[in-house]
Amino acid sequence: MTPSAVTTDSLTAALDGLVDRVPGAELAVVLSPDGLLLGRSRNLSDHLAEQLSSLVSGLYALGQATARVCATGALRQVIVQMSRAFVFVATTRGGAILTVRMGGDADVGDMAYEVALFAAQAERALPVYLEPARTGTGGDSGAHHWRP
Fold this sequence. Notes:
By secondary structure, this protein is α+β, with helices and mostly antiparallel strands. It has helices at about 10-20, 45-70, 110-120, and strands spanning about 25-30, 35-40, 75-80, 85-90, 95-105. The chain has a 5-stranded antiparallel beta sheet, with helices on both faces. The longest helix has 25 residues, at about 45-70. The radius of gyration is 16 Å and the shape is globular. It starts with 7 loop residues before the first helix and ends in a 27-residue tail after the last helix.
């Protein structure tokens, strides 16, 4: 059996580094495209990690659907602003989903930059997910694209 290229320790260390490096960052998780928890930063309980996985899966699906309907390119980030926190959801080149929660008084620009940077560099610590092949041979896909 071939050992996995991704270790929980290396992913945890990468997520901890992100949380430690960015002022206001509180926690981080990484999911597979189908919502399975791949890794999380320290001090994040199993229960909260599972809740975030479910929540982020829904946000990601909504973002993907929006990108398809608006026909304006691939989904890169979803940002949720609450009264005392932000949640950043970003896709990696390999298909994994990074989520970071930060306090409401943190610098949003710094976090958006760091999330994008981490997502772009994550292929070293994450597996690559391939999209299923499309089986259609043409015709109407059923999607109606919004164009301004």
